[in-house]
Amino acid sequence: MSDDRGAVTTEMVIIMPVLLTLVLLLAQVTVWWHAVHIAQATSAHALAATRLQDGTAAAGRTEAERVLDQLGRGPLHGSHVTVTRTADRVEVEVTGTAASVVPFLHLPVRTHASGPVERFRAAP
Fold it and tell me: What domains appear along the chain, each with residue ranges and CATH number?
């Protein structure tokens, strides 16, 4: 009969760090996903404000900052909003980094929204 003393302890020393790492990775993905959703909402609102007939790129940036302040900047660090408006098209890009749950893991966040500028056209 072999001596099995300490076998459970050895297994736990190997299994527990792996299990805790998996839990932290799951939490990190959840925070990243939430940060992406915040960036998507920000870019959509900025696009809507900028593509109005009398809208401006400055109005889009102001709306983006308002949405970021309202939703909270916790999960999205170092956010940067770029709004470009031409005569026909509007492009909005929101970039940043998701908050870090796992040490030394900084996941990037980038969303893009674009659409045509709204124009009033008289009936023929």
Answer: 7-116 (3.30.1300)
